[in-house]
Design goal:
Blueprint lengths: L2 E5 L2 E4 L4 E8 L6 E8 L6 E6 L6 E3 L7 E6 L4 E6 L8 E9 L11 E2 L3 E6 L1
Parallel strand pairs: 2-11
Antiparallel strand pairs: 1-3, 3-8, 4-5, 4-9, 5-6, 7-8, 9-10, 9-11
């Protein structure tokens, strides 16, 4: 399994932006679909965005469409989540996930997970 380390979280005011990064190691990065999920206190982990191993397939949750973008740099083994126009309801721990040569938007569709990075949006 690939190992994942997220970074870039923090505290931001509503309307602001953050860019999360997820560095992967221990696998052939270009073979992995990369996803971002989030979990707010008291809630289940939910899908945010994913990018397929080719980069051609990109999907977003309805709640973040038009505000978040996802990209990958295979040379750096890194996937990014650019978050703009942040809202207080975006506050959560954000997790990076990976799955080899498969696309799915469920938690169970991903076999490798990072430790998460906290994003807090103040109103």
């Amino acid at each position: 399994q690939v190992q994942l380390v997220e970074s870039g979280g923090g505290l931001v005011q509503a309307g602001g932006s953050l860019r999360l990064s997820c560095a992967a190691s221990g696998g052939t990065f270009s073979s992995y679909t990369m996803g971002w999920f989030r979990q707010a206190p008291g809630k289940e982990r939910e899908f945010v965005a994913l990018i397929s191993w080719t980069g051609a397939g990109i999907y977003f949750a309805d709640s973040v469409k038009g505000r978040f973008t996802i990209s990958r740099d295979n040379a750096k083994n890194t996937v990014y989540l650019q978050m703009n126009s942040l809202k207080p309801e975006d506050t959560a721990i954000y997790y990076c996930a990976a799955e080899r040569l498969r696309i799915g938007v469920g938690v169970s569709d991903f076999g490798s997970w990072g430790q998460g990075t906290q994003v807090t949006v103040s109103s």
